[in-house]
Amino acid sequence: MPMTIQSFHPPVRTLMGPGPSDINPRVLAAMSRPIIGHLDPAFVGMMDQMKDLLQYAFQTCNALTLPVSAPGSAGMETCFVNLVEPGDTVVVCINGVFGMRMKENVERCGGTPVVVECDWGRPVDPQQLEDTLKAHPEARLVAFVHAETSTGACSDVKTLTQVAHAHDCLVIVDTVTGLGGCELRVDDWGVDAIYSGTQKCLSCTPGLAPVSFSEAAVARIKARKHPVQSWFMDLNLVMGYWGPNAKRAYHHTAPINALYALHEALVLLQEEGLENAWARHRHHHEALKAGLEAMGLNLLVDEAHRLPQLNAVKVPDGVDEARVRGLLLERYGLEIGAGLGPLAGKIWRIGLMGFGCNRKNVQLCLHALEAVLLEMNAPIEGGHALPAASRIYAG
Predict the structure, then answer these.
(1) Does the pLDDT of residue 171 top 80, yes or no?
(2) Which residue from 44, 261, 311, 333 has the fewest beta carbons nearer than 10 Å?
């Protein structure tokens, strides 16, 4: 049978879910630049710039700072397979879906997870961590999520790291949704290993995972008694390709054009200024929050622990949340996210990330959500959302 499949042309969407986020046209254009070899001297020079730019984004001087050639989940695995050895006790703090994934990584590495269970929608409790570490002096690592994508809760990385270090544990931190969107200071806060993704607040194409490892973490990796279970993610090998030497050892064929995109996304972050980017996410979050609350909707997370870039909104009683999302996509080309795990059907997740964190998107989201909910006879107040957001923008 002859094939009749033609080129794929995706519809134009406004992405305000938990990721991916809308991509800056400069980043899209960077992906179309001519491909060169992954060992070409010009490409190696760009790799060095990439490390500098990632160090800026993470606020670190860690030499081992690089993008893993795979999505954020592979960044997570890179941290765990290199730092967890069979028999290690690892304290895993769970306050959402991605803490649960950390636990599974520990188990797959042959480690023994000890879980600190926290309420979903709340940050990790430092006292619970302290009590758990006192009860498990054999623990070698502590793992927790900085910016929990499933709930919109932000945990206190600095305090949790201090607690872990006081018990001679290294820390692994998930900041897939945090990097570029809210305050993060890897060196000042003493983080040992951290991973992120490119498709959230960096507004880059999915498929790369920035990671960074402290000197203490590198020493732990080099002193392993067992080989790293993953050849591809073994940093002892990857360091030969991303290392400081001008002559790079071949490890894998890097995703060249995707790395062009990340380089451009990080240049954009540098041009805006990291603290300005944090402030921008906070500013547009305040406008969105004002509009949602004026409509009569409530956010899941307490204000003190709320991520500006990921807003978990409680679904009003009697509302078919999936139908709302379907109408937003069908009529307005607007994507927002559903809840996960025990929050499925109970919340929407509205992302304000990177290039998509702007006034136009906030206003579109408020207008569209209000129109759909009023049509469905939801218990909300009409006509107040946009004026409330406008008051925030007016200062």
Answers:
(1) yes
(2) 333
Q: Which two tokens stand for residue 296?
A: 């009569």
Gap between the Cα atoms of 271 and 27, Å rounded: 14
Q: Cβ of 186: how many Cβ atoms within 10 Å?
A: 26
Residues of the binding site for substrate: 349
Rounded to whole angstroms, how far apart are CA atoms 124 and 95?
A: 6
CATH architecture of the region 273-393:
Alpha-Beta Complex (3.90)
pTM of the model: 0.96
DSSP state string for 315-348: PPTT--HHHHHHHHHHHH-EE-EEP-GGGTTTEE
**Low-confidence winner among 181-185, 249-253, 275-279 (lowest mean pLDDT):** 249-253
Assigned token pair, 195:
């991973």
Going from N- to C-terminal start, the domains of the chain cover 25-270, 273-393
The predicted-structure confidence for 252-305, as pLDDT tens digits, reads as follows: 989 999 999 999 999 999 999 999 999 999 999 999 999 999 999 999 999 999
- Can you say which residues are annotated as belonging to the binding site? 349
Residue with token string 């980043």:
27
Give pLDDT tens digits for 301-360: 999 999 999 999 999 999 999 999 999 999 999 999 999 999 999 999 999 999 999 999
The span from the CA of 252 to the CA of 174, in Å, is 25
Answer for the pair 233, 81: CB distance below 8 angstroms, yes or no. Answer: yes
